[in-house]
Amino acid sequence: MKLQKQHIIMLLFAALVLGFAGAYAGVKLAQPGPASDQELAGNGAGLQNQGNARPPAKIQKVAQAYNLIKENYLEDVKDKQLIEGAIQGMVGSLEDPYSSYMDKETMKQFNQTIESSFEGIGAEVSKVNGKITIVSPIKDSPAEKAGLRPNDQILSVAGESVAGLNLQEAVQKIRGKKGTEVVIEIQREGVSEPFEVSIVRDDIPVETVYSEVETINGRKTGVIEITSFAENTADDFSKQLTELENKNIEGLVIDVRGNPGGLLTAVEGILKNFIPKDMPYVQIENPDGKVSKSYSNLDEKKPYPISVLINEGSASASEILAVAMKEAGYNIVGTKSFGKGTVQQALPLGDGSRLKLTFFKWLSPKGTWIHEKGVKPTVKADQPAYYFSNPIQLDKPLTYNDTGDKVKNIQIMLEGLGHDPERTDGYFNKATEATVKSFQTEHDLEATGKVDEKTAGLIETKIIEKVRDGEDDRQLEKALNILYQ
């Protein structure tokens, strides 16, 4: 089902999803917030002077600059270029990564992204400290399969630097038709040199809720993963929760790791299942400091224990859910979330373009503002080191006596695959050589003990498969086990 276009102005973006033309923090575009810069939503209450404020006298200075350029500049300049440049300049002067101008073409692309699917690499991106940054790859997307992860900085796309581009401009370079290939240059924290990732774009379906039953110590336990908060997410969540309860689950884990956010109405619909009516599930503060509180009609909590999973890719609407559940007394497991506590609305300018501006703060049930701080888990849990290994790029084969980050990365991967190199400090010793030979023999490669492109590619493929299979998902394991402690 398509999202209704009037809902565009009710989105609270945490990030733009690559493949969308705008921002997806909870829906699917690509910005920050977290994903997209998805707009989590507001109902518009408290908006003042929507385009009707009288401009100051000094606005004539802008008109004067316009006339001087038109009459004197060496080359011909189109009116549209000057007008849209002025708007972008005003928005840029706000120094707010969540406020942006979306021209008619960008809005057209954005409208396409709120269908049942979109074409792209499947990653939400944001602008963090002036850098185009991955908020989170979408589940089962080309970006996830290629190994992109939260906080990766995008340096260039198809050989062209994205430095100085706004979020929408960068996203338009990254998005593209299904089946086309794009090479993205990545800088990753803890890795000394940038590396390139080649990704084939695809259709990215907008499915947001996945559920299953795990058996923990003989107890049926429901696990519901929410990948973003879209129009139908709350209904899908309620339907799948009912199905789990009909299977007599004794506990529940809600997983919003890597979820960049989405519609406020969606997360509200989910929280109404868990937050009793004696406390608000979210508060919205307007520019005047006036706060409105939202409550459920729920008399009491669920009769079973619940844990919520978060990580650094959980943003915006995900953080609304996590902090509300935390303050209601539920366990939050994982690592600290992204930290987006503002609400945007996209307002029409009359020609098909829109101005997306930050209007509100959202606060936790107890009035806490998590912006740029994130939500801290009540139970910290980290993933194995190989979950954070990097794509392997070689100028020459790695061999005995080599040192550096590339060797360390290979050692961590081999260890994660069950081949013990005895050290992961970046020195290619004889034990590492023996471990490489063991891996090569296991996979019918020539046992040279050297890491060439073929060996490196297979090691990387096997690690990505293992991460995607969730074999050593320590965070989920912790969230499940603490339910019954």
Automatic annotation (TrEMBL):
Broad EC category: hydrolase
Record's signal peptide: 1-25
GO cellular component, one term: outer membrane-bounded periplasmic space
Molecular-function GO term, any one: serine-type endopeptidase activity
Keywords: Hydrolase, Protease, Serine protease, Signal
Superkingdom field: Bacteria
Positions of the PDZ domain: 111-175
Catalytic activity as recorded in UniProt: The enzyme shows specific recognition of a C-terminal tripeptide, Xaa-Yaa-Zaa, in which Xaa is preferably Ala or Leu, Yaa is preferably Ala or Tyr, and Zaa is preferably Ala, but then cleaves at a variable distance from the C-terminus. A typical cleavage is -Ala-Ala-|-Arg-Ala-Ala-Lys-Glu-Asn-Tyr-Ala-Leu-Ala-Ala
Record family assignment: Belongs to the peptidase S41A family.
Identification of the protein by name: C-terminal processing peptidase
Source organism of this protein record: Lentibacillus cibarius
